[in-house]
Structures are given as C-alpha cells and as structure tokens.
Design brief:
Shape: elongated
Strand content: 15-25%
CATH architecture of the largest domain: 3-Layer(aba) Sandwich
Low-confidence stretches: none
Order of helices and strands: EHEHEHEHHEHEEHHEHEHEHEHEHHH
Largest sheet: 6 strands, parallel
Structural class: alpha/beta
CATH topology of the largest domain: Rossmann fold
Length: 368
C-alpha cells in the first residue's frame, strides 16, 4: 500500500454526459459525498463520447488510458458497464488493466443486460463471462442483478457487491401546500417505447384522468417530436408539456414543482430519476422492473403498476391525483427512504469501502 501521506489513486471510467450513470459520477466528480475522511484519490477518465467520429477517436483514448496506467500507476480501475458497444469498449479497457497488472471493478448499469448477454453467440458469451469473472469486484444495483451475474454469468458470489445508486436531494422537501394547487405529474428519461411513453400518453388521455385536474411534464431526449405529436393527437396540449432534454437546473426546478414521479418503463436497472423524485418528496408511480422492487414497496413508499398496461396506469395515476392524503403519505415515506439509503452524501464512503477491500486483497497477494 502507498504511504499514508499519499492516498491510493483510482481511475474511474465515465461516459459522456447524457444518461443516468453519467449524472451519478458527475455528481461524484463535482465533490458529491467527498470530505476530509476520503482515503482515496479518484481520477475520472472519459471513456466514450457521443459526438460524430467517436469511433475514430477511440484508439487515441485507449492510448491516453494506457499512458495513465503506466505513468500514473493507479491502484485499481473502476469500469462502468452497459450493454452492446459499452461492453466491447470496456472489455478492451479491462484487457489493458490486466496487462498492466491493475485490478478492475465492474459496475453494471445497463437495464437490458440480461437480454443482451443471453442473445450473444456462444463464443462472445464466453468472452463476456471471462471479462466479468476476472474482475476484482462486480458492483450491481439490486438483488435481481446479483442473481443474474452469479447464476447466469458465473461470477463468484463473494466478489459481487450490491450498491444501489444515489443522487443529490434538497435539504428539505419543497412546500406543496398552496391552496388550489393542481398536482403535476413528472416523467424524466428517454422518451420512447422502452420507457413506456406510448402507454403513458394513452393513460393520460383516458376518461378517468380527463375528469380530474392535473398537468404533466414529459422531459427527456429520444423521441421528442413523436411524443409531442402523440400528445397533440390525444388532445392533451393544454395539460401536457414535452420540452425535450433539459439540463440539471431545469430538472431540479421540475422536481421542485411536481407532485408525482411516473416511470412506466419496460426495462430498467435502478433509475436515477426515480431516486431523484423520492429525494424531492414526490410520490413514485413506477413499474416493477430491474431493481425497482428493491426500492419501491407497493402501497408504502410508492405504487407499482404492471408493464405496458395503460388502463392500470391510468387508474393508479387517477388515484394519487385525486387523493392528496395518499399522495402525501407515500411521498413522505419515499423521502424518508431516500434520506436513509439513496442520498449521495453517503455514497462515496460506501464506494470507497469496495475499493479498499480490493486494494487490501491486492496487497495480500503482493506480500505472498
């Protein structure tokens, strides 16, 4: 181990801004959860960008990463992982780590990873299995993902760590007690079928919702024009706003102004927008996909709705729109659970504990 005066350095591979995982690590990069007790120095490295020509820039990025491995000699590397191209790129980064004798930690985020892995040709599945099994630790976001990497990919259970996502939240929940307040429903995420946007628009257009007073904001990238057209075709222009992608400050303003966080996804890992809604004291209405059931207990801190069921979604939304007492009770419990388990101010310490376990094992091997 390095001397106490020189904390061990970790390289963390982060993607370009845009998705939930990039938001999480950008918050850490800005100092979220870091204080004088931090025992590690974290060096963030942009592993991929979404601009045109990214593939042509990838060899240069690998070269810069290899230079850091050789000349800055990190104690370990943290590799954030999703499916498809992310797995291919990160497997190359992991190979470089092995060549440099630097242990790596995999952090699985992709909600569709099971389908991606199971649909790979057998030779590629074997490569991905080796990629996972050679990791010093595999961090997953919930029990369903632990079961997957242990039972399907074959990772040693002792090397798998469940560490749920975390986000920033306000110190206090915004006041929503104004007389005559019209409840606002908020969706944050990629607009499209995978997030349940078609059935959400259908649910909002149903008679049991039309008879109530509410407004909604569907914010995110993806199929923005298509969603705007669907809202217009449903005759919801006066109630539903589709602003497209919004930045961090606008997201915070929307969370503060809203009452219900809706996320009728078909596939998720553990969505940050749901945790953000909990942090701002919104009532979650979500589908039980990925690690969501680890967080949301139906009728206690939110409501669960079946996947791809516009009728059920309309019924649940109508229930929390019309029943302010129920909405407030679920939201208060969601906020309490956020404070206990999903506040980013406690996240870095938990993440560093994983790293320190890895470094301790590495030291023991080196001493043999």
């Amino acid at each position: 181990m390095p001397q106490a005066s020189t904390p061990p350095r970790l390289i963390v591979l982060v993607p370009e801004e845009g998705g939930g995982i990039s938001r999480l690590f950008q918050q850490l990069q800005r100092g979220g959860g870091q204080d004088d007790r931090s025992r590690l120095e974290i060096d963030f490295f942009l592993s991929h960008d979404k601009r045109r020509g990214a593939l042509l820039r990838f060899p240069g990025r690998l070269g810069r990463f290899l230079a850091r491995l050789i000349f800055r000699r990190p104690a370990a590397c943290h590799i954030n992982l999703a499916s498809r191209g992310s797995t291919l790129r990160k497997a190359i980064f992991a190979w470089l780590c092995r060549r440099a004798s630097v242990p790596y930690v995999l952090h699985l985020h992709g909600g569709g990873y099971r389908d991606f892995f199971c649909n790979l040709p057998a030779p590629l599945r074997n490569i991905v299995r080796a990629f996972f099994r050679r990791a010093a630790r595999v961090i997953v976001l919930g029990q369903v993902w632990r079961d997957f990497v242990v039972e399907v990919i074959g990772v040693d259970p002792a090397r798998v760590v469940i560490l749920p996502n975390a986000v920033h939240g306000p110190d206090a929940v915004p006041n929503r007690d104004a007389p005559g307040r019209v409840p606002q429903i908020l969706f944050l995420g990629r607009l499209g079928p995978g997030k349940g946007i078609p059935e959400l628009v259908e649910a909002l257009a149903r008679d049991d919702m039309r008879s109530l007073s509410w407004r909604a904001v569907l914010a995110g990238d993806g199929q923005v024009a298509e969603t705007q057209a669907a809202v217009a075709a449903a005759g919801l222009d006066d109630r539903v706003e589709v602003p497209g992608w919004v930045g961090p400050e606008a997201v915070e303003a929307l969370l503060a102004a809203s009452d219900i966080l809706v996320l009728p996804s078909h596939v998720e890992n553990l969505p940050l927008s749901m945790l953000e809604g909990m942090g701002y004291g919104l009532c979650p209405v979500v589908t039980p996909v990925g690690a969501v059931p680890d967080v949301i207990r139906d009728g206690q801190n939110g409501l669960l709705v079946p996947v791809d069921d516009a009728g059920a979604l309309a019924g649940v939304l109508a229930r929390v729109v019309s029943d302010g007492e129920l909405r407030g009770r679920l939201a208060a419990r969601a906020r309490a659970d956020f404070e206990a388990s999903y506040d980013i101010r406690h996240y870095r310490e938990k993440l560093e504990a994983v790293y320190l376990d890895v470094l301790g094992e590495n030291d023991q091997r080196s001493a043999r």
